[in-house]
Every structure is written in structure tokens, then in C-alpha cells.
Amino acid sequence: MKGGTIFARGRLLPLFVWIFGLLLVWEGTSWMLLHVVETPLAQSKLPYVHEVLSTLWKYSGTLLKEGAATFGNAGVGFLIGAVAGASLAVLMSLSKTIEQLTFPYAIASQMIPILGLAPIIYGIVRDEQTSRIIISGYITFFPVALNMLRGLRSVDPSALELMHSYAAKPWAVYWKLRFPAALPGLFGGLKIAAPLAVTGAILVELMGAQHGVGVIMLRNLYYGSSHTYMFWSTVIVGALLGIASYWLISLIERLVAPWQPEFRPKGGSC
Amino acid sequence: METNSVRETKFIGPTSKEMAQPALTAAQKNAVAIPKPMEEATRWGSSRMLKRMFSAGVMLPVLAGVLFLALWEFQIFHKIFDLKKYQLPLPTAIATTMRDNFSMLLSYTGYTLTEAVLGMLVGSAIGFLIALAATAWPRWGSGSLTLVAALNAVPIVALAPIMNLWFGDGIGSRIAIVTATTMAAMAINAYKGMAAIDPLALDLMHSYAAGKPAVFRYLRIRNSLPYVFTALKINATASMIGAIVGEFFFSSKGLGYLLSNSIKVAKMPLGWSCIVLAAIAGVLFYLVVERLEKVFIKWHPSQR
């Protein structure tokens, strides 16, 4: 128990100092731009934090509702993409044929700029809900599949031999050896994909949708400098959604795969 | 030497819990030997193994690709998903459009690729430095890592107008966007590589009374290399995305600009040719990074 609190304090305090320092620098720079340097459009470039925060508070109801819409859609796509990616990785590790068939395309399709595809997908589907889910899922798919495959492959050969000498069934090898070994890779992929899924969802909203953070963001961007604070609020909400998704994955990782060196009290680095 | 120590741990007790641990350290070590199939794939490509050109590893994906294109060309997809030809143009139409606008498309691709490469170099360098700092001073550094991850979570689409305000609507704003998007992947991956070192190796270094710089020089940086290259590969793709999405909004040049414009005026074949070229540019970029990885990992002792 005691160790837990020390751990929490040791981790969270620096983070808060960082955030506080950053906000201070931000506020100072904003003041500098407005009063000392007198750049044109100073408040659009870097608005006062307190103004943005008060706008954020004032419209928190709307922002929360739209943010939830974005987050929900991104989440559904993310889950579908993650499950599909993990299944493909397992299939590829099971069967050489499937791997030979799909791996070049998995690599190649990872290099198609998927967010570039977004307008095309939107143009085809013409439905914000579906295209958001498709894009979020597609973004999630490849990091998860490739990272998980690497994990499944990276089992120590001698551990495999040991399992073999115990006459372990294939499913036992998977369950006890390969899956635990693949978990760090899987979560690495998920952590990359989670904020991207949110980005994808917002991008679709920017292209023309009814609900979501992106819609308000675009609207306020077009209204110009009088709506600067609201625009920045939506940016912050978008960022918070991304952070929330990242933290959620990290939390799950800590619960599911707690043996990783970086979770040890000394953090694998001392 | 390292493998020995892992084996020793295993003999202590092969219960399922302890099994997991050596398996993991091994996983991290073997991560050095990044995807084997990829290496094989390139080997197949070399003329030295002409015979293997006709092996299953090449023929299967090629056949699948041809089948996919055929289904597309003969409008099977259009029937299944109930699409019209103006929604999903046929491959031949895309090819024709590409040939007709070749020189413009080529110069736009070059422009976008320049943004992506420059942005990625800057972003990856900053990300690596952040990872170094985060490992050297874990107490304060991990906070900065969280902040970088947070920056990564700011949607590119929101970054784009902000960067445009800051850096004007020239090439600078897209480089800034790409920098911001590539930083986090490198920071997180490099940090993971530097942190996830074999505890036994660290103990050994300690028993040799190695200082922090020595641990970095001989252990952490070396261990992080495979992760760094993984991050570079991720970033090669991400930077293309950043550049293209950045061009959606404020640009008069580049593939992203052309793509969003041609979709607006319902020139779907032109939009698709942008995607095809972006994909080709992305693949080339990726292959260059992969080539570099091979060169660097070659002298990497853990590969022998």
C-alpha cells in the first residue's frame, strides 16, 4: 500500500509540474505575442490559456456530447480493427500460406496514406458513421497485426523446445507462450493506433458530418478570429480524446501484461 | 552470453508464471531480428534467386493481387457493394488519367515527398532526443514522454490550421505538421528500446561499475536500435499521411491538395491516381528506410 502511494507520487508529480510549466510558458508567450511583439492575429496563433479554458468550461456540455460521439465512433472502429488485426496475426503465425498471401499486402497497404484515402472512402460510402468506423478500423488494423506477428514470432526457441518436450498441445503453446510474448507488441500497436483512430474519426467529421468534435472545429475555424477560443477548445477536446484513448490502452496493458520491465518499480531503468 | 543467462533463469522453475518472464526477455532480444519474412521477401526479389521467383511466396500474393484487380475491373465489387462507376472508378480509367496528367502528378509527388522526408527527419531526431532524456532522468523525463504522446494525440487535422497560422502556407507548415506527428512514435519506441533491456545485462554493467553514459553507450542505445528502426518505418508512413492531410487544407500544390480538389469536383479517377502515387511514394520511402535498417543492423553485433 505504502509502496503504491510513493509510486503514484513519484510518477504523477513530475507530470503535473510539466503540464503546469508548459501552461505557464504558453500564457507568457501569448502575452508576449499580444503586447510585446504585437504579431498580427496573435490570439489566433496562441490564445490565452485562461480564455480557452473558460470557453471550454462554458461550452462543456456541447463539447462533451460531441466528443462522446467522436470517441464512440472511433472506439467501435478501433475495436473492430484491433480484433481483425490480432486475428490476422494469429492466422499468419499459424499458416505459412496465409502469411505469404497477405504479408506483402499488409506491408504495402500500411504505406497507403490511409487518412488520404479518407475523402475517397467518404465519397464512396456517403455515410459519416460508416466511413468513420471504416477509417478508424483500417488505421488500427496494421500496426496491431504487424506488431502482434512480431511478438508471436519472437518466442525464445528454447522455451518452445521446453514446451515441446512437455508434449504441450499447440493451443497450450499459444496460450502459455506465444500470446504472453505477443502482448507487448500488441499493446505497442494499440497505443500507436488509438490516437490515430480518433484522428481519423475527426477527419471524417471535418469532411462533412452532423455530429462530432470535428464539425464544431471546422465551423469555428471558418468564423475566423472571433471564434478563436472555441476553435482552440475543440482542438483541446480532440487532444484529450486522443490522450484518453492512449491512457486507456496503457491502463489495460498494465492490467493484462504487468510483467514488462518498464512496469517494475525501478522502471527497468535506474 | 545473454542467451545463457536466459536459459539459466528458465531452469529455476518452469511454472507458467516464470515461463512468461524469460519468454518476454527473449522476446525483446529477438525483436532485434525484426520480421523475418520481410528479409526473405527481399531476398526473393534479388536476381540471385531467380528460381525462387516462382515459389509460393511470390506467386501467391501476385495471384491474389491479379485476382483483386480483375474483380475490380470487371465490376464485381461494384455489384457486391452496390457502387456506381463514378464512385469507384475502374483501374483502367485510373491508369489512363495517370498517363494523361503524368508530369503534373510527378512534380506534386516530389513536393509531397520532400515535405514528408524533411519533416520525418526533424521529428525523429527530436523524438530520439526526448527518449534519451526520458531514460536518463526517468523521474522527470517520463512526464515529457507523456506530453509528447499527448501532442501526438492532437489530431493532425487540428494541427494543420494552427501550423498554418504559425508558419505560413508554404512548405514550412507541412514540415511542422509532419514533425509533430512523427515525434511521438520515435520517442515512445526508442524509450521502450532503451528501457526494456535485460535486467541481467544491466546487473552485469553495474557489477563492472559502469556509469550512466557507459550503460547508454553499450547497452541502451544498442538495444534501442531495432525499436528505432521500427519507429522510422512507422514514421515513413505517418509522415506521408501528415504531409497529405496537411495539404488538404492550406496548399496550392502537392498530392493532398490535388486529391481533395479532384474529389470536390467529382474527378474520382484523378483522386485515385493521387492515392496510387502517394502509395508508390510511400512504398519507396519505406523501402529506403528498410534498406538503411539492414545496413545498420548488419554491424549490430546482436545480429550475428
Task: Please provide a written account of the structure.
- The complex is a heterodimer of chains A (270) and B (304).
- Chain A has 270 residues and is mostly helical.
- In chain A, 83% of the residues lie in helices and 0% in strands.
- Chain A has helices at residues 2-37, 42-45, 49-58, 60-94, 96-110, 114-125, 128-153, 157-165, 170-206, 213-223, 228-256.
- In chain A, helix 10 (213-223) packs antiparallel against helix 11 (228-256).
- Chain A is globular, with a radius of gyration of 23 Å.
- With 304 residues, chain B is mainly α.
- Chain B is built from 14 helices and no strands.
- The two termini of chain B are 13 Å apart.
- At the A-B interface, helix 1, helix 5, helix 6, helix 7 and helix 8 of A face helix 1, helix 2, helix 3, helix 4 and helix 8 of B.
Structural class of chain A: mainly alpha
Q: Sketch the major β-sheet of chain A.
A: none
Shape of chain B: globular
Percent of residues in beta strands of chain A: under 5%
User: Over the alpha carbons, how many angstroms does the gyration radius of chain B reach?
Assistant: 23 Å
What kind of assembly state do the chains in view correspond to?
heterodimer
Biggest interface, chains and residues, is:
A-B, 82 and 92 residues
> What's the mean pLDDT score of chain B?
76
Overall pLDDT of chain A, averaged? 80
Helix content of chain A: over 70%
* Distance between the amino and carboxyl termini of chain B: 13 Å
Structural class of chain B: mainly alpha
Q: How many distinct helices of chain A? A: 11
Gap from first CA to last CA of chain A: 22 Å
Q: How many extended strands of chain B?
A: 0
The major β-sheet of chain B equals:
none
Global Rg of chain A:
23 Å
pLDDT < 50 stretches of chain A: 1-7
**SSE string of chain A:** HHHHHHHHHHH
Helix-strand blueprint:
The complex is a heterodimer of chains A (270) and B (304).
Chain A lengths: L1 H36 L4 H4 L3 H10 L1 H35 L1 H15 L3 H12 L2 H26 L3 H9 L4 H37 L6 H11 L4 H29 L14
Chain B lengths: L1 H11 L3 H15 L5 H10 L10 H18 L2 H5 L10 H10 L1 H35 L1 H16 L2 H12 L3 H25 L3 H9 L4 H38 L5 H10 L3 H32 L5
Helix pairs in contact in B: 1-2, 6-14, 7-8, 7-10, 7-12, 7-14, 8-10, 9-10, 9-12, 10-12, 12-13, 12-14, 13-14
